[in-house]
Write a structure and sequence with these properties.
Distance between the termini: 37 Å
Shape: globular
Helix content: 25-40%
Oligomer: single chain
Strand content: 15-25%
Length: 257
């Protein structure tokens, strides 16, 4: 993404396709770097098989994330879309398993393709479901094509596990930056964005809704809160961290007072 930003600042735009990768964390980390420079940032990646095609009973595609960030104006946080192409991120199902909680119907299916609320059934031979049915399947497939066929990386059916560190996972990902200043002057952009986003947030609200949020706003507010108050961890996750602490000899940070 750094290279995309550098080249887009000179040439207007840059697209990079990368193979031989591993899990790079959350995609918005990279797209917001572009937005901070007044650019549109794009990031997509493929992952191990977790989704069936529409009508299928076997997982063949990854939860293949898509992230986009746009600048809003000087001193303001960007608006950011960062989503998996599954109904929810797979990590939420994993966390439900660790904490012994059921998952909502519509998140996944068991090994026979039947709807289930048991996270273990989804993770042990079952599959996540795509967001929006056929739309999520199509998004996941297009991301898979770009991230495997374009880069030469593995596809979701052949790549390594996120949890197997004995080999390169060989994921693929694509980053892009578009210099908006080459199309519209910054003051015009900020004025138009302010008017549009202001109209969205001023939308009449349904009963019980306090405010209209912009994409990425809940995550940013949670991040700010976590910086002040710390992160609440489920006991199962805390226990995993303690085992890693013992294994690697890296002390856990002390809890906040």
């Amino acid at each position: 993404m750094s290279l995309c930003i550098q080249r887009a600042s000179r040439q207007g735009s840059c697209f990079a396709a990368v193979g031989g990768g591993n899990h790079f964390g959350y995609a918005a980390c990279f797209t917001e770097q572009a937005a901070e420079k007044g650019m549109l940032g794009l990031a997509i990646a493929n992952g191990p098989k977790a989704l069936p095609p529409t009508g299928g009973a076997r997982a063949l595609l990854g939860t293949n994330p898509l992230a986009l960030s746009l600048p809003v104006g000087a001193g303001k946080p960007p608006i950011t879309l960062d989503m998996a192409t599954s109904a929810v991120a797979r990590g939420k199902v994993t966390l439900a398993k660790k904490t012994g909680r059921p998952i909502p119907e519509g998140w996944g299916v068991d090994k026979d393709g039947n709807p289930t609320t048991d996270p273990e059934a989804v993770l042990s031979g079952g599959a996540m479901l795509p967001v929006g049915g056929p739309k999520g399947y199509a998004l996941s497939l297009f991301i898979e094509v770009l991230c495997s066929c374009l880069t030469g990386a593995d596809n979701g059916q052949t790549m390594g596990s996120f949890y197997d560190f004995s080999r390169t996972q060989n994921t693929g990902y694509c980053f892009a930056a578009l210099n908006l200043g080459g199309v519209v002057d910054a003051p015009q952009w900020e004025e138009r964005m302010s008017a549009l986003l202001g109209s969205i947030q001023a939308c009449p609200r349904r009963p019980g809704v306090d405010r209209i949020l912009l994409p990425g706003q809940p995550e940013r507010e949670n991040w700010e809160k976590a910086k002040r108050e710390g992160i609440s961890l489920p006991p199962a996750v805390e226990e995993e961290l303690k085992k890693l602490e013992e294994h690697y000899g890296v002390p856990l940070p002390a809890p906040l007072g």
